[in-house]
Write a structure and sequence with these properties.
Layout (H helix, E strand, L loop, with lengths): L2 H12 L10 E4 L8 E3 L2 H7 L8 E4 L4 E3 L2 E3 L8 E7 L6 E4 L12 E2 L17 E6 L6 E6 L2 E3 L16 E2 L2 E4 L8 E4 L3 H11 L8 E7 L2 E11 L4 E7 L17 E5 L11 E4 L4 E7 L4 H7 E5 L13 E3 L7 E9 L1 E4 L6 E4 L1 E7 L2 E3 L6 E4 L3 E5 L2 E3 L6 E4 L3 E5 L2 E5 L15 E4 L3 E5 L2 E5 L4 E4 L13 E5 L2 E3 L8 E7 L16 E5 L2 E3 L29 E7 L6 E3 L2 E3 L6 E6 L8 H8 L9 H6 L5
Parallel strand pairs: 1-2, 1-3, 3-6, 4-7, 5-22, 6-23, 7-24, 22-25, 23-26, 24-27, 25-28, 26-29, 27-30, 28-31, 29-32, 30-33, 31-34, 32-35, 33-36, 34-37, 35-38, 36-39, 37-40, 38-41, 39-42, 40-43, 41-44, 42-45, 43-46
Antiparallel strand pairs: 8-9, 9-20, 10-11, 10-21, 12-18, 13-14, 14-17, 15-16, 15-18, 16-17, 19-20
């Protein structure tokens, strides 16, 4: 045998094959499975374990809260096997809370002196409440948690017991053409508006709130307040800042539209309200007078966000994926029976893994998405409970085979949770899939669509699985609460030219069947989370108007069978039980074939679609 051959043979005998190493079990908490390597806290584990191998397990003690974030990667992207992250108990979830207390952050609470208070704080003479301060802190504050409750930052005006900041309706709007010295001048007859204008006028601009304006039926925009005139009750605002949308004077802003004032100090007057001062990097919290700082250290937990935003995993409660642009195509990942509370970003972020199962988890109050999954070969999201997400409940991008089944999603698009305003208000959103089975989910209280899918980029990877889309047995209620031109089930076909019908691709099954759809809450006022007020007759700016469908097939979405759905609620004026913006959508493919032979083949399906769905 040649010398070089002997060396290669020896190396093959010595080096283990990928995935054949002995599986390791890591336990976090006070106890763990026999033979597990034990870590007392999540922080201890993350400091020592940077990556995991195929068939490794991470077991978190059930019924216990583990403070911190969990970010894991495979040691080798070519590894094979199944990595499991789970609770130690089948009955008690293990809670991951990314927020830390003051001691974890190397700081301590103290009563804020009057010269330390943010200008405009309305508590200087209070007999019952006082302000505590923490910091300076290393990163901006995204969330504050008291016990099991995630608290939004102090909103102006006071959001009180509501789960969303209070919306104020405009009574007068003036543009530059009409004499406003800024981009726009706004007034409201709401008494809370008057209080805020006075507070803003006497406070320095560094503590002014952000103004979020309902700018069109389809968008909100963020604005910097340029000035306040308490005499006339007017706030002047500049044009939009940030990434949400470009506001122009030709847009639809008018009296009756809603605005929100967020992250301001002027309403810092109720227990548990908080304000983060970016200039001093300090956190201010209201508590009852006489509270000892040690009580706050025990009760309050703070979630910090990555201000640079360069690492998308940095703010996630639990993240998993190979480093760089590598793909772990041969790896399986199982995440079970965890509870993730108040992440500064998405609760779960998983990317570039061959197969992923996310089952029986509880997710509450993340600032971004509940579950964000991208570039997964096969994704199963089953029997999870997701609530109060800042953005989508579940978002999936460029993943071949999807099974999203039996999940319960509530209050998706919680605008008060978002660190920066976005338009992602859907229960489930997916794009770039080949095969998707979305079945038996319960979705309630969403800002936009219950289920929103994009055909662009979909159905292409036939080698992964036969192309198919089935949306069946879902219950979607109280939808379109933040934006209009939407539906409970919204499909974007990817084409806008209706004079050029989108061809139906033979062999691709697309079914929307046996779903229960009820109680749309569309409005133009921007009233969040079920607070819509019925419109006055003939008022375009009123609540229940503007292009809402139970099933909304837009941009030439074609080839769908839509039947057996139960449609309830008010869809008029300007609404549809089924909006057919495509072609060849009918109760069955046979019906579509018959219609195709008729004189109006591109637009003749709407009546047939109505007739094959149950409408009370």
């Amino acid at each position: 045998m040649p010398f070089r051959t002997r060396i290669v043979t020896l190396l093959l005998l010595v080096l283990p094959a990928a995935g054949s190493a002995t599986a390791a079990t890591y336990a976090i908490g006070q106890s763990g499975p026999d033979g597990a390597r034990l870590f007392a806290t999540l922080g201890d584990f993350t400091r020592e374990v940077r990556c995991v191998n195929g068939d490794d397990s991470v077991v978190l003690e059930g019924g216990k809260t583990h403070h911190g974030m969990l970010a894991l990667a495979p040691c080798d992207a070519s590894v094979r096997g199944t990595i499991t992250i789970r609770s130690s108990s089948s009955n008690l979830p293990a809670r991951i809370a990314p927020a830390l207390n003051a001691r974890d952050l190397g700081s301590a609470w103290k009563v804020a002196r009057s010269d330390e208070l943010p200008p405009g704080t309305p508590l200087n003479d209070s007999d019952t409440k006082e302000v505590f301060v923490l910091g300076p802190l290393p990163q901006p504050v995204s969330q504050l948690i008291v016990g099991d409750s995630a608290l939004g930052p102090a909103a102006a005006p006071d959001q009180g017991d509501g789960r969303a900041p209070r919306t104020i309706l405009l009574s007068a709007v003036q543009t530059q053409r009409q004499g406003c010295p800024s981009w726009m001048c706004l007034r409201s007859d709401d008494p809370f508006w008057t209080v805020q204008v006075r507070t803003i006028a006497k406070s320095p601009s560094v503590v002014w709130p952000q103004l979020v304006l309902r700018n069109t039926p389809w968008s909100f925009t963020r604005h910097r307040i340029a000035g306040a005139d308490p005499g006339s009750g007017t706030l002047r605002i500049d044009a939009t800042t940030g990434t949400t949308a470009v506001a122009e004077e030709r847009e639809f802003v008018e009296p009756g539209f809603g605005v929100l004032l967020l992250h301001g100090v002027g309403a810092l007057d109720q227990a548990d309200e908080w304000f983060y001062d970016a200039g001093s990097k300090r956190l201010f919290v209201v508590a009852r007078r006489g509270t000892h700082p040690d009580e706050l250290a025990e009760q309050l937990f703070i979630a910090l966000r990555d201000p640079a935003g360069k690492d998308p995993d940095a703010d996630a409660g639990l993240s998993f994926g190979p480093a760089g642009k590598a793909r772990a195509s041969g790896l399986n990942l199982v995440i079970r029976q965890l509870e993730i509370v108040a992440a500064a970003g998405s609760a779960l972020r998983i990317h570039r893994v061959g197969r992923v199962e996310i089952a029986q988890n509880l997710i509450r109050s993340p600032a971004e998405h509940g579950i964000l999954a991208s570039e997964i070969g096969r994704l199963e999201v089953v029997d999870n409970e997701i609530s109060d997400t800042g953005n989508n409940g579940i978002q999936v991008r460029d993943s071949s085979v999807l099974e999203i089944r039996g999940n319960r999603i509530r209050n998706a698009g919680h605008i008060g949770n978002q660190p920066q305003l976005t338009m992602q208000f859907n229960g489930i959103r997916a794009a770039g899939f080949t095969r998707a089975d979305i079945r038996d989910n319960r979705i309630d209280g969403v800002g936009y669509a219950g289920i929103m899918l994009a055909e662009r980029g979909a159905f292409k990877d036939a080698a992964a699985a036969p192309p198919q889309l089935v949306i069946a047995g879902n219950t979607i209620t109280h939808f379109c609460q933040m934006l209009n031109d939407c539906g409970a089930i919204y499909i974007n076909g990817g084409g806008k030219d209706r004079k050029q019908p989108m061809p139906v691709i033979p062999g691709i099954e697309k079914r929307i069947v046996n779903n229960r759809i009820a109680d749309p809450e569309p409005n133009l006022q921007g009233l969040p989370a079920g607070l819509a007020i019925p419109a006055e007759a003939g008022k375009r700016s009123g609540a229940r108007v503007r292009m809402v469908g139970a099933v909304y097939l837009d941009h030439r979405a074609s080839g769908y069978d839509i039947r057996g759905n139960s449609v309830q609620g008010l869809y008029t004026p300007y609404g549809w039980n089924v909006f057919n913006g495509g072609i060849e959508n009918a109760c069955s493919r046979q019906s579509a074939a018959q219609c195709k032979a008729g004189p109006k083949a591109s637009r003749c399906y709407t009546q047939a679609l109505f007739e094959c769905n149950t409408v009370p």
